């Protein structure tokens, strides 16, 4: 079972997500939090695998809650819930360690697929949000040196754990780099990222 913690200050929305997600026989909702502070209190005792995190909440923001939860539980996958108005916040959340993002009007099956993908260590991203963020921020593909190293190893077929060992970084850090890479490339998975790397000569092979 995939253990999920829901974090949103709107009770009706949390209840709706809970009812939706529990229709999947491999997902268990272990708790709900109305804000960042409560999420922080619940995270350790509930030990979720995936946290669905609202960004705009009174008190502690979803960005700060994401950062602090991952300090305590670095293996948790945080997926942020956002709207088209929150592009800058999404980027900040990714920098804080979130591995993906969904729009709040995501279809039910899309939400379930995203939870499963996050539990597998993948980076679920709503393609509409990705396009909007890239377009409105006029983001060019300017990968950092470390991101280029990670992408090169992805193109060579290495798993996250192998990449971490090769570069001397944690698997969580690898996931964070991949989330940033996916966002910049406008792709949703490592296969598409690897294809981009191969087209642009980032294979690490002559």
UniProtKB/TrEMBL annotation:
Residue positions where 4-aspartylphosphate is found in the record: 54
GO-annotated biological processes: phosphorelay signal transduction system; regulation of DNA-templated transcription
* Pfam families named among the record's database cross-references: GerE, Response_reg
Q: Which InterPro entries match?
A: CheY-like_superfamily (IPR011006), NreC/VraR/RcsB-like_REC (IPR058245), Sig_transdc_resp-reg_C-effctor (IPR016032), Sig_transdc_resp-reg_receiver (IPR001789), Tscrpt_reg_LuxR_C (IPR000792), WalR-like (IPR039420)
Domain HTH luxR-type, residue spans: 136-201
Descriptive protein name: Transcriptional regulatory protein LiaR
Q: NAD among the record's keywords?
A: no
Q: Which domain of life is it from?
A: Bacteria
Q: Where is the Response regulatory domain?
A: 3-119
Q: Which Gene3D superfamilies match?
A: 3.40.50.2300
The scientific name of the source species is Pseudonocardia hydrocarbonoxydans
For this UniProt entry, the molecular function terms from Gene Ontology, in alphabetical order, are: DNA binding
Q: Which UniProt keywords apply?
A: DNA-binding, Phosphoprotein
């Amino acid at each position: 079972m995939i253990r999920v913690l829901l974090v949103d200050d709107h009770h009706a929305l949390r209840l709706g997500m809970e009812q939706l997600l529990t229709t999947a026989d491999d997902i268990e909702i272990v708790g709900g939090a109305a804000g960042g502070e409560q999420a922080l209190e619940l995270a350790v005792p509930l030990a979720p695998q995936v946290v669905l995190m609202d960004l705009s909440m009174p008190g502690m923001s979803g960005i700060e809650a994401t950062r602090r939860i991952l300090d305590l539980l670095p293996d948790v996958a945080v997926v942020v819930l956002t709207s088209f108005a929150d592009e800058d916040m999404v980027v900040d959340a990714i920098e804080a360690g979130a591995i993906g993002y969904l729009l709040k009007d995501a279809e039910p099956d899309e939400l379930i697929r995203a939870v499963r993908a996050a539990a597998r260590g993948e980076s679920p991203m709503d393609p509409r949000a990705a396009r909007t963020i890239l377009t409105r921020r006029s983001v060019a593909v300017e990968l950092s040196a470390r991101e280029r190293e990670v992408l090169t190893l992805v193109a060579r077929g290495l798993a996250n754990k192998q990449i971490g060992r090769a570069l001397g970084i944690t698997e969580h850090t690898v996931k964070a780099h991949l989330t940033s890479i996916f966002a910049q490339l406008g792709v949703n998975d490592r296969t598409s990222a690897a294809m981009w790397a191969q087209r642009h000569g980032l294979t690490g092979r002559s």
